[in-house]
Design goal:
- The structure holds two protein chains of two kinds.
- By secondary structure, chain A is an alpha+beta fold.
- Chain A folds into three domains: about 230 residues, 6 Propeller (Neuraminidase); about 100 residues, Serine Threonine Protein Phosphatase 5, Tetratricopeptide repeat (Alpha Horseshoe); about 190 residues, no CATH class.
- In chain A, about 40% of the residues are buried.
- Chain B folds into three domains: about 300 residues, Beta-galactosidase, Chain A, domain 5 (Distorted Sandwich); about 270 residues, TIM Barrel (Alpha-Beta Barrel); about 45 residues, Immunoglobulin-like (Sandwich), CATH 2.60.40.
- Chain B contains twelve helices and 42 strands.
- In chain B, the strands form nine sheets. An eleven-stranded antiparallel β-sheet of chain B has the order 1-8-9-10-11-22-17-16-13-14-34, with helices on both faces. In chain B, strands 23-26-27-31-32-33-35-36 form an eight-stranded parallel beta barrel, surrounded by four helices.
- In chain B, helix 6 packs parallel to helix 7.
- The C terminus of chain B is likely disordered.
- The chains are: A alpha+beta, B alpha+beta.
- Chains A and B meet through strand 1, strand 2, strand 3, helix 4 and helix 5 of A and strand 34, helix 11, helix 12 and strand 37 of B.
Chain lengths: ~700, ~750
């Protein structure tokens, strides 16, 4: 008995040794498979700010393990086509050339090879391109979109094919097209979604019982100028001609994935106007993602080829976060459920943290796995300290737990002060705790105009509550005092405008344009030219003031990016153009105004407009988005006033009727457009000539 | 007649063996000019191995028919061959790769029209009967004639105590009139290559250092080819080439593992002349052959890819050659065969020995672990004066606030570098040749106060001065007459690049580079202008990136490097110098160095990142990590500081973040001092406690236990096992939490 016990002990000990050896072997053997975790990629990451400019940021994700095809028994991943993961930590890679599935664990260790078997015979799956795996243990199901054999295979965990979906005979399915499934995904209720090549109606859906139910979520046709032109031509054609030309059809989705809440994310590699590449479809197949450009906002041209983001896969993570894979630049973009960019990472190149032409991304928890058949690798990417803080904060934020998220957003900001969403997150938290003034400043840094407007509204309410009594009282007292003064001291006096100072005359002109302009121009008032010049300067100053100091709610400009010389050129240039054009036009129409008169009238007429712009700028600082109409009114009143002054003044100096003056005004504007057009032509020609000569000089210089 | 020749050769060998001292009179490095006059005796072209030199435990043989060489180390018995014996039958080498395996030189040539061609010495010279080998006193001279190309390249191989010296006699190279012209020469490409049946690795000076193991199976990812001190600046193009960390050490190492430690062998190859012209090449096995090899190649003539009719349909790109070759008379690689270990730790320590040898007054370490802080003082951005908007200096950290930072971290020595301390501001400015402290930050008085404070607290303040790179011209150094030019006669311009597309960003100012000759002029003006309180300087570009200039008579890259070294030498005689990841040539004048990468660039064909650079610097110079607060993984960087023995570095400004928005400093995304102050203090304190007593200690062992577990042992027996993974790991029965470390003490006996 004792001896047996000893034996057992010895056996256990031996087993332990063997296990140690195995693990030691695994460690040394894994050298070829994986790389040490990267701390910071050797070149910088970025994020986009509200103005669509890429600004530096720490890396959100870095690779920590790489499975290279060279380390496999087969020698490569054999142009792997797709990859799928399950919640319990299994990863399946569709090895195209080998016609098998490779099952990996979370650490990218090889578990086994799954070969598909149907009726005891091996199945040729070399034509398959889509893979989806669901369930655990015995419930595991492998869905394989076999494009070439025109069916979707459903197999159990050992690879035994249980059933297959083939072309539905339902008339809803376009019977003229083949059933060429390229991608497959399965909803939590067992509904099967299949993307088919050359079918533009969206994803084909099959019930749990594998009956064809119809289509889901077609891409709409993008309306572009080319399309409209096409439409115009088509309207002129007869039916025979129409039959011969290509139909405009929506672009096919390249890939899709379903999130935990049953929303279907779709990606499209290229769209006609480079927007809406990612969609989030609800159960009515309506896109609830904002309409905008996804992926990189900057594009470039290489050898006259446009290089832009081309999404090939999309993967939904927990908590409404989605990541999309760009094959062009080997880059991953992560968005929250409102379609706001959380982070972008990855690149092309020959480093462990770069890709060549990745085709699939899948996730287990927050770890991402990227399959790159050209590089022949599966790379595991893990969030950095910075990236995981963003994920945590964003999830709290999405759940409306703003106060809780504040601390984590603070941590994000510590690592990246460029991160606008963090400012907005903190601002929301402050709103929840009635710290409106601070919220305003955070919204401002987060470039959130709407949020700022809300915070301002609340903040204003607070102030009004306190200040409304005293202010009303003060205004009433002032009005009474003024009225009393007038009543008791009879200040109404008639003034002879001819004798008045220039300023008074100008003010008078504002309400009596005909008489006023008569004084300023015809009667040779000295100094009116100088006043007009100041008026033009005023326009310039007002435009700068408006650009820089309009309330943040309404100000989309980047105050730091002011080009004051350009603004001067535009205002002064437009003014001069108007004067010149008006003089030239009116000479044709028997106008009598001189250069000086036109100059003075135009400049003085602009004063109400200038005033309105300044007033609007001032008022905009205390207005919320709801009060926008007030700002429009101020501006409209000013512009209208200026226009009336201008027409009246023109009528006076050119001796036109109102109708003639209006016509002359229109012709003047047309004249400006013609001059600009000619200017542009000349500029283009000039540039070409310069380019021509510089190329010749270069050629000569380089010989 | 033939017998006579053979007899003479044999006699020479005998003389040499009997009197090994003959011909070893010159200094270890740079004795080229003295012995290059030596005529030598022509060896008969027989396909036989002839012993040609012997020095201590090393002996050199040569096959005059093929040019093959062997170096035999008598102690370990290892025979290093210049070319594998099975070069014609290697199953992984096809076509031209076979003759490359049998070559001692790989050339890139181009005709006058810029058509480039790669040729090797076997096909174009040896097989065309173009090789002549001459016996020298301590080695051989080999003259490679390339009859079809009208080229002649002489090289010398000499054996000295513990080392083999290989030289290309650049000034004796013959090119035929009208081309083809020699662009670059790769020297001994397969010397000491790792064979398919051998275990070992190549150590590359990439980032912190990288290992490329023999036959690592990573043959699908191309080869390693990287210029020392970064790509020459005239090559900057419309798109940013993302090449990871630049090389700062012109070295590589080869290590052959063996069953018993005493039989381990290997060597360290160092460019001892012409480092600025060198590139490091390394080829993983199965890319071109079954061998894993590394070698240096040298630029002989510059060439620039230029384009015409940019961004049009007719865009045309061609190669424009420089109208003259480089001026170097000799480039030289020395292969050192150290005794007592050739692993990367030993090779790094050996290299340190070589560097210290040049400058014995080293070990500039203090007793306590210092902390490095870059403080940004001012930046130019849009501001308002009386409501008028214009570009003006805006304060990021006043000198007074910088004093407070000094005080806060005063517990340890602080190496504080001031960025944008002058009126130009940080990020974009003119050449710094005047002393004009930023008025918005407190002006000259404020800066003096800070310098006094540093003296008081034992800190050291370094002023960063741009002596070579500039965005804005001044009357003295303009952007049209004082700037270096590229081969196509256009200014050398380093554009800003868009982060997303990597295309040049024309909305941002590009960087010009001063004519190298004017750099020393600017330096002397600047040094003269400095008040006596200033004790430390940081001279970027000058200490890390020499560049060619093709304006007029021009400067080739090596000449610029020599000039920069002189400038640094002069400055270091009066000031402490701060080097940010500096070139090896700048180490002898530096007092402290920062931003030593803690990992390699992470090429696909690398196997491990190792702290080779830190091992070289250990106990020699104080060094730091890159900025902790700009890292995506500050905790990992902290762990790296333990692994590599580095100090921590931070980059700070005290103003609100909005102050740097829309300036060239947006890359300082984590630079807010207020946000980091407490965490930085805690981290510095923790590291100080962990590393207490280790400051003067060497690192004697370093090993990756698994892909996220590393073990490092310091000289006094203190060891650490560090876990970079997120999951818990165990080592010798001890649990190590994710992103953490354990400390252990080994007795004196555990590093056998």
């Amino acid at each position: 008995m004792r001896r047996m016990h000893q034996n057992k002990k010895a056996r256990l000990w031996r087993l332990g040794t063997v296990l140690c050896l195995v693990s030691a072997w695994y460690v040394s053997g894994s050298r070829g498979i994986s790389a040490a975790p990267v701390i910071d990629p050797a070149f910088s990451s970025y994020t986009y700010n509200a103005y669509g400019q890429a600004v530096s940021a720490p890396a959100g994700y870095v690779p920590d393990r790489v499975l290279s095809g060279g380390s496999l028994e087969a020698g490569s991943l054999g142009q792997a086509q797709d990859m799928a993961s399950t919640a319990d930590g299994s990863i399946y890679v569709l090895l195209k050339n080998q016609g098998q599935l490779l099952e990996l664990d979370e650490e990218l260790g090889v578990r086994r090879i799954v070969a598909l078997v149907e009726n005891g015979e091996p199945v040729d799956i070399s034509g398959a391109s889509g893979l989806c795996v669901t369930g655990e243990g015995e419930e595991r199901r492998i869905y394989l979109a076999d494009t070439e054999h025109q069916r979707v295979l459903i197999a159990d965990r050992t690879g035994v094919v249980l059933s297959a979906l083939t072309k539905p005979e339902d008339p809803i399915y376009p019977q003229s097209s083949d059933f060429r499934p390229s991608k497959v995904t399965v909803g939590s209720d067992g509904t099967i979604y299949v993307l088919c090549q050359n079918v533009y109606k969206g994803a084909a859906i099959f019930s749990r019982q594998q009956e064809f139910l119809g289509f889901y979520g077609s891409n709409a046709i993008d309306v572009t100028p080319a399309l409209l032109l096409d439409y115009f031509w088509k309207s002129l054609m007869n039916p025979e001609q129409l039959a011969q030309i290509k139909k405009t059809v929506p672009i096919e989705y390249t890939n899709f994935d379903m999130d935990e809440d049953g929303f279907l994310y779709t990606v499209t590699a290229t769209t006609d106007n480079s927007t809406n590449e990612i969609k989030r479809l609800n159960s009515k197949s309506a896109n609830i993602f904002p309409q905008k450009d996804y992926g990189d906002l900057d594009v470039t041209w290489i050898n006259t080829q446009l290089v832009d983001t081309a999404f090939v896969d999309v993967e939904a993570l927990d908590g409404g976060i989605v990541t999309a894979l760009d094959a062009t630049r080997g880059r991953l973009f992560m968005y929250d459920q409102d379609g706001r960019l959380l982070m972008a990472f990855g690149d092309t190149g020959s480093f462990t943290y770069t890709f060549r032409s990745p085709c699939t991304v899948t996730a287990i928890g927050d770890f991402l796995y990227v399959l790159d058949p050209y590089k022949d690798t599966v790379t595991r990417l893990v969030p950095t300290e910075y990236g995981s803080a963003i994920l945590r904060a964003s999830r709290l934020y999405q759940n409306g737990r703003y106060e809780e998220s504040m601390g984590i957003w603070d941590q994000v900001l510590r690592q990246n002060g460029n991160y606008e969403l963090a400012y907005i997150g903190i601002a929301k938290g402050m709103m929840a705790t009635d710290r409106y003034e601070e919220a305003m400043s955070y919204y401002r840094q987060g470039q959130d105009h709407e949020g700022y407007s809300q915070a301002l509204g609340e903040y204003r309410k607070g102030i009004i509550r306190v200040a409304v009594g005293p202010v009303l009282l003060a205004v009433t007292v002032m009005v009474i005092l003024v009225l009393a003064y007038r009543y008791f001291f009879h200040v109404r006096r008639e003034v002879d405008m001819r004798e008045a100072v220039l300023g008074r005359q100008i003010l008078y002109t504002m309400v009596h344009p005909s008489e006023g302009f008569q004084l300023l121009t015809r009667e040779g008032r000295r100094g009116s030219s100088v006043a007009a010049l100041l008026g033009v300067m005023g326009v310039f100053v007002a435009s700068v003031v408006q650009r820089q100091w309009t309330g943040f709610t309404f100000n989309e400009n980047q105050p730091e990016k002011l080009n004051i010389w350009l603004m001067f050129l535009v205002t002064a240039g437009l003014f001069l153009l108007f004067v010149v054009s008006n003089r030239l036009v009116c000479t044709l129409f028997n106008g009598n105004g001189t250069w000086r008169e036109i100059f003075i009238v135009t400049a003085i007429s602009l004063l109400p407009g200038t005033g309105a712009v300044l007033l609007r700028t001032l008022v905009s600082n205390i207005c919320t988005l709801e009060d926008a109409v007030l700002l429009h009114l101020i501006l409209a009143a000013g512009v209208l006033w200026s226009l009336i002054l201008l027409l009246a003044g023109m009528g006076l100096i050119h001796e036109y009727s109102f109708k003639q003056a209006f016509l002359a005004f229109c012709m003047t504007v047309a004249g400006i457009l013609i001059m600009l057009f000619i200017g542009l032509l000349v500029w283009g020609l000039y540039n070409q000539i310069i380019a021509f000569f510089s190329t010749i000089m270069e050629e000569i210089g380089s010989i | 007649m033939r017998q006579l020749k053979l007899g003479i050769a044999l006699l020479c060998v005998i003389v040499f063996v009997v009197f090994p001292g003959v011909g070893l009179g010159e200094s270890a490095v740079g004795g080229a000019s003295a012995d290059r006059q030596e005529e030598g005796v022509l060896l008969p072209k027989e396909d036989d191995w002839i012993p040609v030199a012997q020095a201590g435990r090393l002996s050199l043989t040569c096959n005059p028919a093929t040019g093959f060489l062997t170096v035999t180390d008598g102690t370990t018995g290892r025979v290093y061959t210049s070319n594998p014996a099975d070069y014609m039958t290697d199953k992984n080498a096809k076509g031209v790769n076979r003759t490359m395996l049998g070559s001692q030189l790989l050339l890139t040539v181009a005709d006058a029209k810029g058509n480039q061609e790669t040729i090797n010495s076997m096909t174009e010279s040896v097989e065309e009967n173009g090789l002549e080998v001459y016996q020298l006193s301590d080695g051989i001279r080999m003259r490679y004639t390339f009859p079809n190309k009208g080229l002649m390249i002489p090289i010398e191989i000499r054996l000295q105590e513990g080392r083999l010296i290989a030289r290309i006699l650049m000034d004796q190279i013959v090119e035929s009139e009208g081309g083809p012209y020699l662009l670059s020469v790769g020297l001994l490409p397969y010397f000491g290559a790792g064979g398919p049946d051998e275990e070992g690795y190549i150590v590359l000076p990439d980032g912190s250092g990288a290992l490329m193991r023999f036959h690592n199976g990573k043959y699908k990812y191309g080869v390693y080819e990287k210029a020392v001190y970064g790509e020459d600046l005239y090559k900057a193009g419309r798109f940013e080439s993302k090449t990871g960390y630049p090389i700062r050490f012109p070295v590589f190492g080869v290590h052959f593992e063996a069953e018993e430690a005493a039989r381990e062998s290997g060597f360290l190859a160092v460019v001892t002349q012409g480092d600025a012209l060198a590139s490091v090449n390394a080829w993983p096995a199965r890319v071109r052959s079954s061998y894993t090899n590394a070698y240096f190649s040298f630029t002989r003539r510059g060439a620039q890819s230029t384009s015409m009719l940019d961004r049009t349909w007719a865009e045309k790109t061609f190669l424009k050659l420089a109208d003259r070759p480089v001026e170097m008379d000799t480039v030289e690689v020395t292969y050192y065969f150290p005794e007592g270990g050739t692993g990367y730790v030993s090779l790094a320590v050996f290299l340190r020995g070589l560097l210290e040898g040049e400058d014995t007054a080293q070990n500039k370490n203090s007793d306590m672990l210092p902390v490095y802080i870059d403080t940004y003082i001012s930046v130019k951005k849009l501001g308002y004066t009386l409501g008028i908007p214009h570009q003006k200096s805006s304060c990021l950290t006043s000198f007074e606030q910088a004093e407070e930072i000094l005080e806060t971290f005063g517990g340890s020595p602080v190496y504080m570098r001031l960025m944008g301390w002058d009126e130009e501001g940080a990020g974009a400015g003119a050449i710094t040749y005047r002393y004009r402290p930023a008025a918005v930050a407190g002006g000259a008085k404020g800066l003096t106060g800070l310098l006094d404070k540093a003296l008081e607290t034992g800190g050291q303040v370094f002023l960063e001065a741009d002596l070579a790179a500039y965005q804005k011209g001044t009357f003295r150094y303009t952007t049209f007459s004082s700037n270096a030019k590229a081969i196509d006669n256009k200014p050398i311009l380093k554009p800003s690049y868009l982060l997303s597309t990597n295309e040049e960003d024309t909305s941002q100012p590009a960087t010009y580079f001063l004519i190298p000759g004017l750099v020393s002029d600017a330096a002397s003006r600047f040094l003269e202008a400095l008040p006596e309180q200033v004790t430390g300087l940081s001279l970027p570009v000058v200490s890390d990136t020499p560049y060619s200039d093709y304006r007029g008579a021009g400067y080739d890259r090596q000449r610029t490097r020599d000039l920069f070294q002189e400038v640094l030498g002069e400055a270091s005689s009066q000031y402490q110098l701060y080097g940010e990841y500096p070139g090896m040539y700048a180490l002898s004048s530096a007092s402290v160095v920062s931003d030593i990468p803690v990992e390699s660039s992470g090429y696909d064909f690398f196997d491990e990142s190792v702290p080779f650079a830190q091992l070289v610097l250990r106990t020699f110079l104080s060094y730091s990590t890159p900025s902790v607060n700009l890292s995506a993984n500050p905790q990992s960087l902290f762990l790296k500081a333990i692994e590599t023995g580095s100090s921590l570095k931070y980059t700070f400004f005290t103003a609100d973040y909005a102050a740097v928005a829309d300036t060239p400093l947006t890359k300082l995304y984590g630079g807010s001092y207020t946000a980091w102050e407490q965490e930085a203090i805690d981290m510095v304190r923790e590291l100080g406690q962990v590393m207490e007593g280790l400051e003067g200690e060497d690192i004697i062992d370093h090993e990756w236990l698994s892909d996220c577990l590393v073990r490092v042992v310091y000289g006094d027996g203190t060891g650490f096992v560090i876990n970079y993974g997120t999951a818990e790991a165990s080592w010798e029965g001890r649990e190590i939490p994710g992103q953490s470390y354990i400390k252990f003490e080994t007795g004196g006996d555990s590093f056998e």
